[in-house]
Design brief:
The complex is a heterodimer.
Chain A (H helix, E strand, L loop, with lengths): L1 H5 L6 H11 L3 H16 L5 E2 L8 H7 L8 E4 L4 H14 L11 E4 L5 H6 L13 E5 L2 E4 L12 E7 L7 E6 L3 H10 L8 E5 L4 E5 L4 E6 L2
Parallel strand pairs in A: 2-3, 3-4, 4-8
Antiparallel strand pairs in A: 1-9, 5-7, 6-7, 6-10, 8-9
Helix pairs in contact in A: 2-5
Chain B lengths: L1 H9 L10 H16 L5 E2 L13 H10 L5 E6 L6 H14 L2 E2 L8 E5 L12 E5 L13 H9 L4 H14 L10 E3 L3 E3 L9 H4 L5 E6 L4 E5 L5 E3 L27 E5 L5 E6 L2 H8 L16
Parallel strand pairs in B: 2-3, 2-4, 4-5, 5-8
Antiparallel strand pairs in B: 1-9, 6-7, 6-10, 8-9, 11-12
Helix pairs in contact in B: 2-3
The chains are: A alpha/beta, B alpha/beta.
């Protein structure tokens, strides 16, 4: 009884419309999103900011600006009814076909990303490495940690040191809401360059950073 | 004729435009893949454009996917903002998008270019879009496109090195002039589009994003900032850029820029001018970086 009340009324056209409207990106919004996504992917560790409607998960919004009928999409919801409703809305707003996690070109993680998720992602083949998955993962917070001492951040925050193309020297980001074993799993998924997966981390406040497959990630501090 | 009939039957299209959102999204995804795999040629569905293929249709598609109303756009052809190809592409994009025209390299957000990289060092926040007539650096070495893909996939570039070696044996130097082959981040061999050798070192660890787009060959590739781009050469054959001793720009006197010969009234080539007109104009007004001392040129 209680559960059915909490579950968003998916049959209600009004509610579905609200979610679809929040995720559908017009020409101007998707151009601005893309400018930010290109900047943060080309400069791993830099933190950009998307313009996201109130209440919409930034990971889904960012993916919806790039996905369409040509992009097999998988949304990780963890069975949460609210996330399920957003997943439905993402498919409706973009007309992106449903795909299994291992076959998706675009993956949106509304629930926390796990190491088995990362291990299951398609990485492309040496002949077509661009088919590796593009992941939009929701996290809690993101902050630039390049000049802060790692000891001053809270206990549940990961500090990642990033090197590779796009990074002069080293950049550091502090992430809350990402498991340390996901970082290891990403390292394994991206060990066979040019095959691999590209990840965008998106925080609740719509800040975003990119971790392309070329980026070497070292865990400076984390649980 | 058909357009008129369609307009009479269905009225004008709701949003007059030359590039739809579906196409832009595909190109944006290809650009992101290109950034994530530096130097790898990402295939994309190149659209018909209001310019003929080979006249910058690839660069135009990349630029249209990048620009917004608040962008400042510079387009150059051989360093020249007023060239026919450059003016027309710039006019097309500006009138379509409503963005701002720009000729000063320092203030441009997006620079679309045919055959040159501006002399002014590019900065963080800028995107250089290069029009690419021939995307495949292995095209003159193996003809089979499947074999070219296999060689890139396996980083099997032995035949490229043999070609360069034969060049040295036959000619005493590597003769590749425009589009000199480069190795990106130690993995992919890439052609940097037909820029002169002079411009190749500017790609190495640039502050800007470089996007290379070949409309005819339907491929997009990219170089992120702070990425290693090394011209292919042998240890005992240092990479050399173009240099003519004693030559300098007739207008600004620069000998440290890329200069080209200009024809005189009698058809003979006796004088030199800067290829980059924006930089040359600013040199004359003292608004450009001073010449490097001593004059660079022999090697890079």
């Amino acid at each position: 009884m209680t559960e059915s009340l909490l579950r968003p009324a998916r049959t209600s056209a009004a509610h579905t419309g609200t979610l679809v409207r929040a995720l559908r990106r017009g020409p101007r919004e998707s151009q601005r999103d893309f400018t930010v996504l290109l900047d943060v992917l080309a400069r791993p560790g830099r933190i950009g900011r998307l313009d996201v409607p109130d209440g919409a998960p930034a990971a889904a919004v960012a993916a919806c600006g790039l996905a369409d009928v040509e992009v097999p999409l998988h949304v990780l919801t963890g069975g949460d009814p609210e996330y399920d409703a957003w997943a439905e809305a993402a498919h409706t707003a973009t007309r992106a076909p449903r795909a299994a996690l291992s076959a998706a070109r675009c993956v949106v993680a509304l629930r926390p990303l796990t190491a088995p998720d990362v291990a299951a992602l398609h990485r492309g083949r040496p002949l077509d490495p661009e088919r590796g998955a593009r992941v939009f993962a929701q996290v809690d917070t993101l902050a630039d940690a390049s000049d802060g001492a790692p000891d001053t951040v809270a206990a549940d925050v990961l500090v990642l040191a990033l090197t590779g193309p796009g990074v002069p020297g080293e950049r550091r980001v502090a992430v809350r809401g990402l498991a340390a074993d996901v970082v290891d799993a990403l390292g394994r998924a991206n060990a066979g360059f040019p095959c691999g997966v590209d990840v965008f981390l998106l925080a609740r406040d719509a800040s975003v950073t990119g971790l392309p497959r070329t980026t070497r990630v070292r865990l400076v501090r984390g649980v | 004729m058909n357009d008129q009939l369609t307009a009479r039957l269905a009225g004008p299209p709701p949003q007059p435009g030359i590039f739809d959102e579906l196409s832009k999204r595909e190109i944006r995804r290809a650009m992101l893949s290109g950034i994530a795999i530096p130097g790898y040629q990402v295939p994309f569905g190149s659209r018909e454009m209001p310019v003929a293929r080979g006249w910058g249709s690839g660069g135009l598609q990349a630029t249209l996917s990048l620009v917004g109303e608040d962008s400042r756009l510079k387009v150059i052809d051989q360093g020249e903002d007023a060239g026919v190809n450059a003016s027309n592409l710039r006019r097309l994009v500006v009138s379509h998008v409503g963005c701002e025209e720009e000729t000063d390299t320092r203030h441009a957000d997006i620079i679309q270019s045919r055959h040159r990289i501006p002399e002014q060092p590019l900065r963080d926040g800028q995107v250089l879009v290069l029009q690419v007539p021939g995307a495949e650096p292995l095209a003159g070495i193996v003809r089979d496109m499947d074999e070219q893909r296999r060689m890139h996939a396996e980083a099997d570039y032995a035949k490229m090195w043999v070609r360069l070696y034969e060049d040295v044996v036959h000619n005493g130097l590597i003769t590749a002039a425009a589009g000199y082959p480069v190795l990106v981040e130690g993995r992919y061999i890439m052609t940097p589009s037909p820029i002169p050798r002079w411009d190749v070192p500017k790609l190495d660890r640039s502050e800007a994003i470089t996007v290379l787009s070949a409309g005819r060959e339907k491929r997009i590739f990219a170089v992120p900032p702070h990425t290693s781009v090394v011209p292919l050469t042998f240890e005992d054959r240092p990479f050399e850029v173009e240099h003519t001793p004693g030559a300098a720009c007739r207008l600004c006197g620069s000998a440290d820029t890329y200069i080209v010969q200009e024809p005189a009234a009698d058809g003979r080539f006796t004088t030199w001018v800067c290829s980059d007109t924006d930089f040359c104009r600013r040199r004359r007004t003292g608004d450009a970086p001073a010449p490097a001392q001593p004059v660079q040129g022999e090697t890079a």
